[in-house]
Structure formats: structure tokens, C-alpha cells
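FORM 12-B: Structure-to-Sequence Request
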């Protein structure tokens, strides 16, 4: 039996944060604020005091209750991808397991997947289920950098800062039931891993008052944009070839939500109409690693994804060192 997705859960911290948290009304009308690459979403959510593991528990608890499942004994593998791990050494997986009351055989903090991590997780889980190593898994994606990182007094005036939002998306995967995973594709380009870094003169663990910020080398920005435009269509096309369908046959496309420009370029390259490419950017901003599962969960609750739909999820990470895609025949 193919690997199946049973359900999704999501959690968004705090009340919505308006665009005026970052810019005045006059600044929002400026050319940079309306640039498709940096267009400020209407709202987003910010982490304040929550730990990543608490966000996972808040997203997964209601999902398990809805499924009528007690987490204890129901999770063989727990995988997390957290933008800013609360503990830089131990990660968040063990703490999340403790809060949920489950005892996985495997706990993996997958730090390198970024915005491509959900498809990457699906491929890992499918490989382990096919090998008979696990039968169930909980996939956890947490974006917690907007309230803790991009809200710093100086950083928040950067055009990059206003696009970010916080949230958590989870998915419960099973070897015996759920919407079948039809195929998955992961593309690695490790030569680009160092094209994303932190501004500043000190190392992030060194003491100091200088605000650090995620940055791309200015001279490489054009190449990074071209890479982003190319990678998601490549990953989606690859997974569609695996399952013998054309990209135009996708019923629902769910990608990470970096900005309006990428969303438009991806669907045009794939021949997917705008109404079939789900867009949560205006409401939640760029949720980074959590963008795909949160958008998927909200689409299920709103009826935008229905039984029988061919759903393809995809994303690219960082400055383009990874991309992933996965195809699912929804049944739920």
C-alpha cells in the first residue's frame, strides 16, 4: 500500500500583524514596497513567547483529536524543520515529542530543508515506510523568524523583513491509510548553499548588540532570482514525469509563498491557471518552511482541495541549494 497522508494541522501565533508595523502608509506606497519581489502582504502573524515545540503541539494536538488518535504509540518517526531552533544543540523534536506524549522510534531535526523541507520529508518518510522501518510519521514545519528575527528595530525596516510571517504546519503520514503519495522529487545544488548568510561583522554566537539579518550577496541577487524561477518548475515537472501526467493536469498546486513574483512565474511556467495555484501570501506572508503545510491545511478546511484532486506540493530552499516536489491524490 502506498504511503498516505491522513491529515494536516496548523497553528498561527497571536493576532494578525498589519503592514504598518513595518512601514508608514506613505512608505507602503513607495516603489520598493509595491515591487513584486518585496510586496508587503496585508497581514502576517508573529511569534512572541512560544517555543517551536509548543507551536508543533498546538498544530498537532487538534489534528490527532480530529482523527481520534492518541499520539502515544501512534508516531514511529517525528521530523522537524524549524527556522530558528529554540535550542541550537538539541533542536526541537525531542521537546515536541514530550509535549505531545508520543515516543517515536526516530526523532530527526532536519535543518537543511528550508522552504523545500515538506517535499523532502515526504520522500524520506516514503523511503522508510517502503523499507519497513516505520509505519507512521509526524512531519513538523515551523517558521518562527518573523517575530524573533525580522522584528528587530533596525531589521524590520528592511524590505525583506515585512514579507515574513510565522506559523506551524504538521502532517500525519501512515503506511496503511490516507491520501496516497504518488511520487516525490528532491533536487540538490550544494554549490549555492553559501549564497545565503547573515549580515554583520560578528559570528552569530559571539556577544554584541549588532542586529543580524538574513542576506543574499547583492551581486548574486539576479542569479538567485533566476534560480528560484527555474527550480520549482523543474521539481514539479520531474515528479509529474514520474507519475505520467502533464503539469497542466495538476488540479491543485501548493508551493512555498516567497513573494507574488515567484508565484506568478511558477504557474505560468507550468501551465497551471491562477485559480488552481493556491495563494496564502496576502494573509500570512512568507511562511518559509511552514508555507506548504499551512496552505494545504487551510485549503482542506475551505474546500479548495477535494477528494480525487491531484495535488502537487513544491518549494525551493534558501538561495536555491535545494528544491522538492511531491504528488498526492487527495483522499480525506
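FORM 12-B RESPONSE
SEQUENCE OUT:
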Amino acid at each position: 500500500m502506498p504511503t498516505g497522508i491522513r491529515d494536516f494541522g496548523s497553528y498561527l501565533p497571536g493576532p494578525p500583524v498589519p503592514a504598518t508595523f513595518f512601514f508608514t502608509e506613505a512608505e507602503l506606497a513607495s516603489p520598493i514596497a509595491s515591487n513584486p519581489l518585496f510586496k508587503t502582504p496585508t497581514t502576517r502573524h508573529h511569534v512572541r513567547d512560544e517555543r517551536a515545540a509548543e507551536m508543533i503541539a498546538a498544530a498537532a494536538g487538534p489534528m490527532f483529536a480530529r482523527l481520534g488518535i492518541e499520539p502515544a504509540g501512534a508516531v514511529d518517526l517525528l521530523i522537524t524543520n524549524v527556522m530558528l531552533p529554540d535550542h541550537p544543540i538539541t533542536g526541537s523534536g525531542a521537546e515536541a515529542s514530550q509535549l505531545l506524549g508520543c515516543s517515536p522510534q526516530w526523532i530527526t531535526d532536519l535543518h537543511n530543508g528550508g522552504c523545500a523541507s515538506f517535499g523532502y520529508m515526504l520522500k524520506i518518510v516514503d523511503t522508510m515506510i517502503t523499507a519497513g522501518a516505520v509505519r507512521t510519521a509526524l512531519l513538523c514545519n515551523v517558521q518562527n523568524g518573523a517575530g524573533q528575527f525580522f522584528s528587530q528595530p533596525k531589521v524590520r525596516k528592511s524590505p525583506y523583513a515585512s514579507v515574513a510571517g510565522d506559523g506551524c504546519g504538521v502532517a500525519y503520514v501512515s503506511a496503511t491509510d490516507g491520501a496516497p503519495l504518488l511520487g516525490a522529487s528532491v533536487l540538490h545544488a550544494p554549490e549555492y548553499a553559501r549564497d545565503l548568510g547573515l549580515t554583520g561583522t560578528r559570528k552569530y554566537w559571539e556577544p554584541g548588540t549588532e542586529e543580524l539579518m538574513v542576506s543574499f550577496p547583492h551581486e548574486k541577487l539576479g542569479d538567485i532570482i533566476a534560480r528560484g524561477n527555474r527550480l520549482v518548475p523543474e521539481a514539479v515537472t520531474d515528479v509529474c514525469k514520474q507519475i505520467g501526467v502533464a503539469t497542466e493536469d495538476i488540479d491543485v498546486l501548493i508551493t512555498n509563498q516567497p513573494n507574488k513574483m515567484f508565484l506568478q512565474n511558477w504557474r505560468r511556467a507550468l501551465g497551471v491557471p491562477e485559480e488552481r495555484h493556491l495563494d496564502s501570501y496576502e494573509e500570512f506572508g512568507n511562511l518559509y518552511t511552514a508555507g506548504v503545510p499551512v496552505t494545504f491545511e487551510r485549503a482542506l478546511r475551505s474546500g479548495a482541495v477535494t477528494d480525487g484532486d491531484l495535488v502537487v506540493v513544491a518549494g525551493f530552499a534558501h538561495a536555491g541549494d535545494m528544491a522538492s516536489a511531491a504528488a498526492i491524490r487527495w483522499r480525506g
